[in-house]
Write a structure and sequence with these properties.
The chain is α+β, with helices and mostly antiparallel strands and 169 residues long. It is 49% helix and 15% strand. The chain has helices at residues 33-42, 75-87, 93-110, 115-126, 133-138, 143-151, 154-168; strands at 8-15, 22-29, 53-59, 68-70. The protein has a 4-stranded antiparallel beta sheet with strand order 2-1-3-4. Strand 3 and strand 4 (68-70) form a beta hairpin.
Amino acid sequence: MNYNRKIMRLELSAEKALNGGYYYAELLLPAADYEIKDAMQRTRAVGRESTVEVSSLECDILPELQDIRLDTFSLDELNFFAKRLASLPNEELPVFYAVTEQIFDDAEESETVDDEAVETETDEVDGSADVEEDEAAASYEDEDFSEFAEFGSTDEYEQLAEEDTNEDA
């Protein structure tokens, strides 16, 4: 797969072993293995990967991840997640946004984001998880979203919303 479409920009930092201070490196995801190794070498953290601090500076597809420090991470997992996001077809993005919006709304209430929940939702959006569309759509209280998920196109959803407005009048 071609990973030229970079969707996430990370800042890696690791404390200098002798005199304090920090080494910094920028890493664009999705990345090839050599790019990850290069970033780890620039932070002088090869062999002490657990000491690296990671901050998400930008994420084109998921702006909620912008300007946050990631406390629990694995660069391999983040890279896998970025690959999944970059590979989502445009027609699946509205469903992904609806699902992640619900996750982030729930997280605001509990003040934490479960990164496994977001990753699981990318599995469900692209169909790699064993979840039927009817079950996924039924898990939302919003009937319009269920109908939108069935139609799968913004134009059809707008027509549906317009019909509902006309019925209410």
